[in-house]
Design a protein that fits this description.
Structural class: alpha/beta
CATH architecture of the largest domain: Alpha-Beta Barrel
Largest sheet: 8 strands, parallel, barrel
CATH topology of the largest domain: TIM Barrel
Number of domains: 3
Number of helices: 13
Distance between the termini: 79 Å
CATH superfamily of the largest domain: Glycosidases
CATH class of the largest domain: Alpha Beta
Shape: elongated
Length: about 650
């Protein structure tokens, strides 16, 4: 167990011991201890026949550390921890009769005499806000997702598979209006949300940060309890149950993770032992001007251990299938959101944050080394090269990257009146110039429906019919474009108001046909995307995409092919970005035979006008769009039409029978 000592308090003498071995300390100091949560924090246990709790906390610049709680009337100095002899800066001790469920904090006397009351950075459970104490906890949950975990190991992200992600803010997805407008708890979500995501056909759900945060209005992005799911909605086991239920339904769970900054709340990580312990001391590197929060010191080994251990904690203890890493751009650049003179160049005179870059690379190497069947996704909004390329090739090592350029250009294009779109066709085609430089995920995320931006449907031009047709067109274009997909909650049924975390989604809108139609389309797009390998097999590879025609600006029409390994198993996608119906429109196709329209967003079932291309279309030998064959069809207004070759009929034709 390590070195044993005697620790005296003002009330009693307690025998303490250490969970930390010399090797643990070596790894901690070297920045290579990646399961630190097993050793630091509060751990209920039995020692010499007595049940109690072992506490360990890193506070190298403290002159005294004690544990306070109801058990000592929150009086500092009565349950003293002792400083280890090895200069690790860790204070530890075992106290009997303190067990699971006990609220506590650390009373830290700084080396300048300041008394700080801090929550445990490694606490597994916290009091519900606005209370701020940690709670002694040990995880006790029996997982029932063996089938899912086995399949996950057999089909890691390196193998082509669809990602249709439903982004969710747990606290506002649905509220119980008759019960003081409260949010659903984890257990209720395990019934309602899981069933909804399953029925909608999404492959994954992504939660905005669930880690404990004091301010609900931060949406979870200002974290004080990195190792604790927020207690607003239940216990850690309740959250495990929610993830378990998703897995049992064949749905992956991605967690939003925030290693970029943390808030300055008095009980949190800031000024933890009276010094800048977790944050960088120089405000030009340690203070974030946009969010008025503090930036981790990525050059400090112990801080790197804290963060990488936290990533593995959620992936291993909670069976998370991936981490979406927030605000990566703010980590990469020393001058991010700073004016000249407000930042310090690196040792080479550049604006790259070399310590953060090193951290991100190591984070990805460790995560994929330990949990190779998970995925890491970067929210990175700049042209930094190789974000989703392996570190051994000079990349940052992420599995995927949000395609922010696509999102920006696409929404700008769709805001325009269709009569003017022919002058801006490059905005909708430009993404294919760089679509395969990264493993891109196409996001229509929460950031696009807040801060006065309005809803997605609110940005579509025209009357009601045109607005909903435009929205359906946008979604089908997104699902057929190379890359994985993410859509924020409410977008799937055309939420009309801007997202407000204090209110439930406007589920009553589903009483109206247009909104029901959008929801039906998303359900069909999820099914279509999952079943058509051409849409995901080469999601990040130029072999999966081919232009048919991007030059018909006068009609605002673009046509492209999506394809997989099987050359016969391809789709031809036709997007008409105007409300004009295009009759007798000729499209070049690669194969002779019969073609069929397999998706049309103008279908009346989705709220469209019902201009469909029914039946089979026989190719003619007219060469068009650089293809040997072509067909003519009617392009529906503000719609996507997808064609597929009828394999059996085509093969019959190819045989010459």
């Amino acid at each position: 167990m390590g070195k044993r000592t005697k620790s005296k308090t003002t009330e009693e003498t307690t025998e303490s011991f250490s969970l930390l071995t010399d090797f643990d300390i070596y790894l901690f100091k070297a920045g290579k201890h990646f399961r630190l949560y097993e050793k630091l924090g509060a751990h209920p246990m039995e020692y010499k026949g007595e049940r109690g709790t072992y506490f360990a906390v890193w506070a190298p610049n403290a002159s005294q550390v004690s544990v306070i709680g109801n058990f000592n009337h929150w009086q500092p100095g009565r349950h003293l921890l002792h400083a280890r002899w090895d200069e690790s800066g860790i204070w530890e001790g075992f106290f009997p009769n303190i067990g699971k469920g006990e609220a506590y904090k650390y009373a830290i006397r700084s080396n300048t005499g300041e008394l700080l009351e801090k929550a445990d950075p490694f606490a597994f459970y916290c009091e519900p806000p606005p209370m701020t104490a940690s709670i002694v906890w040990e995880h006790d949950y029996k997982w029932r997702d063996d089938v899912w975990m086995k399949q996950r190991r057999e089909h890691p992200p390196a193998k082509a598979k669809p990602y249709a992600v439903y982004e969710v803010h747990i606290g506002s997805w649905k509220k119980v209006l008759h019960d003081n407008n409260r949010s659903l708890n984890y257990t209720e979500l395990a019934n309602e949300l899981v069933a909804y995501v399953r029925d909608m056909g999404y492959t994954h759900v992504e939660f905005l940060p669930v880690m404990e945060h004091p301010f609900f209005g931060s949406w979870g992005y200002q974290i004080t309890g990195y190792y604790a799911p927020t207690s607003r909605f239940g216990t850690p086991e309740d959250f495990m149950y929610l993830i378990d239920r998703f897995h049992q339904e064949g749905i992956g769970v991605i967690l939003d993770w925030v290693p970029s900054h943390f808030p300055g709340d008095a009980h949190g990580l800031f000024n933890f032992d009276g010094t800048h312990l977790y944050e960088h001391a120089d405000p030009r590197k340690g203070f974030h001007p946009d969010w008025k929060s503090y930036i981790f010191n990525y050059g400090r080994n112990e801080v790197r251990c804290f963060l990488i251990s936290n990533a593995l904690f959620w992936l291993e203890r909670f069976h998370a299938d991936g981490l979406r890493v927030d605000a990566v751009a703010s980590m990469l650049y020393l001058d991010y959101s700073r004016k000249p003179g407000e930042w310090i160049p690196n040792q080479y005179g550049g604006n790259e944050n070399l310590e953060a870059i090193s951290f991100l690379k190591e984070f990805n190497e460790v995560v994929y080394g330990e949990v190779p069947d998970c995925v890491t996704i970067a929210e990175e909004s700049t042209s930094w090269p190789g974000v989703s390329r392996p570190t051994y090739l000079g990349g940052l090592g992420f599995g995927q990257k949000w395609m922010m350029g696509w999102m920006h250009d696409t929404l700008n294009f769709f805001r325009k009146d269709p009569i003017h779109r022919k002058y801006h066709q490059n905005e909708i085609t430009f993404s294919l110039m760089y679509a395969f430089t990264e493993n891109f995920m196409l996001p229509l995320s929460h950031d696009e429906v807040v801060h006065g931006k309005g809803s997605l449907i609110g940005r579509m031009p025209g009357d009601d019919w045109q607005r909903f047709a435009n929205l359906r067109l946008l979604y089908a274009y997104m699902y057929t474009h190379p890359g994985t997909k993410l859509l924020f909650m409410g977008g799937e049924f055309g939420q009309t108001s801007e997202w407000n975390h204090n209110h439930s989604l406007d589920w009553h809108l589903l009483e109206y046909d247009f909104h029901k139609g959008v929801q039906k389309l998303i359900k069909e797009l999820n099914r279509f995307y999952r079943t058509e390998k051409a849409l995901y097999q080469y999601a990040f590879d130029h072999r999966g995409f081919q232009w048919v025609d991007y030059s018909d600006r006068e009609n605002s029409v673009i046509i492209y092919q999506r394809q997989g390994d099987d050359p016969m198993d391809l789709l031809v996608v036709i997007c008409n970005f105007t409300p004009a119906v295009r009759n007798h429109y000729r499209v070049g196709v690669p194969y002779r035979g019969y073609w069929k329209e397999v998706l049309n967003t103008d279908d009346r079932a989705y709220g469209g006008s019902g201009i469909l291309n029914t039946g089979l279309f026989m190719t003619s030998p007219v060469k068009y769009h650089g293809r040997d064959y072509s067909i003519t069809l009617t392009l529906p207004p503000l719609a996507v039409s997808v064609l597929k070759c009828e394999r059996e009929v085509a093969e019959f034709e190819f045989d010459g029978s």
